[in-house]
Write a structure and sequence with these properties.
By secondary structure, the chain is mainly alpha-helical. 66% of the residues lie in helices and 0% in strands. This is Urea transporter.
Length: 327
């Protein structure tokens, strides 16, 4: 992640300072979108936003709405500008809340209200979790998004105006069962694993997201691609449904876990590379368990496997002499 913006230069003309300040505030939005994949690069965020619109106008609009609502909430309540808001760290859960709710509930005015309300609640929950996790030096990751979206989706059927037009979310294997892997499932699954971080199941959308990560750094893009591959291969080795593998459903949690454990929160060494691989395999393995558990109550897997696995792997670092935290 990049550092916070430089402090203002007293010799800079007032008009230029004001323009730069406005630009800095505007750039928190694409940075917030980019932070879904741990990047504070506004160019990466703009590419991600373009990818969402390619996936469907509703994903772009509602993802943007969630990011703005969460960022403004954090600013209103006085969250640190330099350490948090300017880096986009208060926006990314709002992005995912917006994209997920429009996927599950469709594009309606009720969804608009729920996205705004969810993003506000997610912002407050982010601060609360930061306090709770601070003694353990663990980030919140996408846990606020997971909690808010899980509560809304599980509770949704109780409210007719919320659930009346909800979209069907059955996995691809519901209509195409079988474990026989094909080349098409394989190569599409690798790109879809990157795109499914944002709930996108079109391989070309995943390719655009991958391009955004490469803009942030070619190593970052490579880690995401390899992590998606590892997740897919893990699911295949365990006998997961081929259609689900092709849709990237076993890759996206591995992508986030790989990015977190190699370079973002853990220092880069050959030992940490092995550690990250183990984490990505674990995230793919846990995906089925979390999905089955939440299916009983009408919930969804979301990014829970990434959150839980990465918390465990980071919590273990202080006792692992050959693994060090980044920074």
């Amino acid at each position: 992640m990049s550092s916070a913006p430089a402090p203002p230069d007293p010799s800079e003309p007032t008009v230029d300072r004001q323009r730069r300040r406005v630009l800095d505030h505007l750039l928190t939005i694409p940075k917030g979108i980019a932070q879904v994949d741990f990047q504070a690069n506004h160019w990466t965020g703009l590419v991600f936003l373009a990818a969402l619109f390619v996936g469907g106008w509703q994903f772009g609009v509602f993802g943007l709405l969630g990011t703005v609502a969460a960022t403004l909430t954090a600013h209103l309540f006085g969250v640190s500008w330099r350490d948090r808001i300017s880096l986009g760290l208060e926006g990314f859960c709002g992005t995912l809340i917006g994209v997920s709710l429009v996927l599950y509930l469709d594009a309606r005015w009720m969804t608009v209200l729920l996205v705004v309300g969810g993003a506000i609640a997610g912002s407050v929950l982010t601060s609360a979790l930061r306090v709770i996790l601070a003694p353990y030096d663990l980030p919140t990751f996408t846990a606020p998004f997971c909690v808010i979206t899980s509560v809304m989706v599980i509770g949704g059927p109780s409210f007719d105006r919320v659930w009346a037009e909800h979209a069907g979310t059955a996995p691809p294997s519901a209509t195409a069962p079988g474990t026989a892997m094909t080349w098409t499932y394989f190569w599409k699954g690798i790109f879809n694993g990157v795109g499914q971080v944002f709930f996108q199941d079109q391989w070309y959308v995943g390719l655009i997201f991958l391009a955004g990560l490469v803009i942030a750094g070619w190593v970052t893009g490579l880690v995401a691609l390899v992590s998606s591959l590892i997740g897919l291969l893990t699911g295949w080795a365990l006998g997961a449904q081929a259609a689900d593998l092709g849709a990237g459903l076993y890759g996206y949690n591995s992508v986030l876990t790989g990015l977190a454990l190699f370079g973002t929160f853990v220092a880069v060494t050959w030992v940490s590379a092995v550690y990250a691989v183990i984490g990505t395999v674990a995230a793919a393995g846990v995906t089925a368990g979390i999905g089955t558990l939440f299916e009983v109550v009408g919930g969804h897997t979301l990014t829970w496997p990434f959150v839980l696995v990465t918390w465990v792997f980071l919590a273990a670092v202080p006792l692992l002499n050959k693994i060090e935290r980044a920074g």
